[in-house]
Amino acid sequence: MNEYGVENMKKIGPYNFKNIDDVYKLIEDVAGIEFDSLILNAGTFSENDDFVNFNLDEFNQVMNCNFYSQLIISTKLQSYIKNGGNIVLMSSNDAYSGAFGSMSYSISKSAVVSLMKCLCVNFGRRHIRVNAISPGAINTDMNTPEQEFEAPMWTPIERIAEPYEVANVVYFLSSSESSFINGENITIDGGYGNVSVLLKEEIQRERKIVGYDWLNEKIASIQEDDIVYCLDATPDYGWIENPKEEIYLNEYIKAVERNVKVYRIIMTPQHKKQYILNNDLVKETLEKSTNAEFIGVVKEEDVKKHNKTDYPKIGKGFAVIILKDGTRQLFVDSFTNEDSVGYVIENEMMIDSLIEVFENIYKNIKNKKIEVYK
Prior knowledge:
Layout: H1 20-30, E1 35-40, H2 56-76, E2 81-90, H3 103-123, E3 129-135, H4 145-154, H5 163-174, E4 185-188, H6 197-206, E5 207-210, H7 212-221, E6 227-232, H8 243-257, E7 261-268, H9 273-277, H10 280-288, E8 294-299, H11 300-306, H12 311-314, E9 317-322, E10 328-337, E11 340-345, H13 348-366, E12 372-373
Helix pairs in contact: 1-2, 2-3, 7-8, 8-10
């Protein structure tokens, strides 16, 4: 207001767009104003709109607010939009799926995407761009418990969005920075729409996400003549600053003392060599594990040079545990957060492949092609 002056501001509303008369009242109140951009964002939701107790009046109220308001405003105010201006319509990622309830919301948001395409091809002659945004779970008053607590479980980046993250895209589409983006529907859902619940549950049946507690208990449980192949490969080795890592490394020392056959390679980039070797946890592990089959620190660049086909398979690291009875288990590092260090998998092909990777690297260590840091 300070930038543009109070005299240039016009107070209007409030309006209830569930009522079409209020939509036309808005048009009457703003007629005569020239617009660079129209951002049409009004929306409502009905949890009682189901297939058993279908109520057409309630359905129409949602359609009025979510769809007809955007249709009427964009068409009735088109003469007041400057040539070269733009319109941003608000849809939803619910537009892409069939609704189990609240079908008016999904249908109205699907209609908005179709409206955007129609406006795009018809307003293009005046160089007016029209785009739509389809948010997923956003932290607003329309949030539901399912969105807040369950959506993060199925969203690759494991959270819902904040309103400003949608506002940033609106701003971009309304600016000259997006001058050749037209007729697009942009989804803002953190990748949620790309997740197949079925496929994720299938892989989770095979992969168990675990943290340090599971890992430490597992290392503590292995006994004499069990075997562990462990290859640490986190590039920056932030893990050694984690207090739970001290417990983890100490469990390896105790395993060596129990005559577990421990093979452990710590791979570090050249520039991190001294940082790793001077770290108290790493020094203690090397000093107290003289009875291990092998524990040593090697240079990442050497592995890349001498094990070209093995290096891409290492990822962020792994450990294979082989018990005397033949049971084998693979732990794969992921470090998505402190409570999700990695996952456990019993896929025999992966286990065979990563044991081969370890043995190939270890062979080059024994042949002195790969230097072991002291």
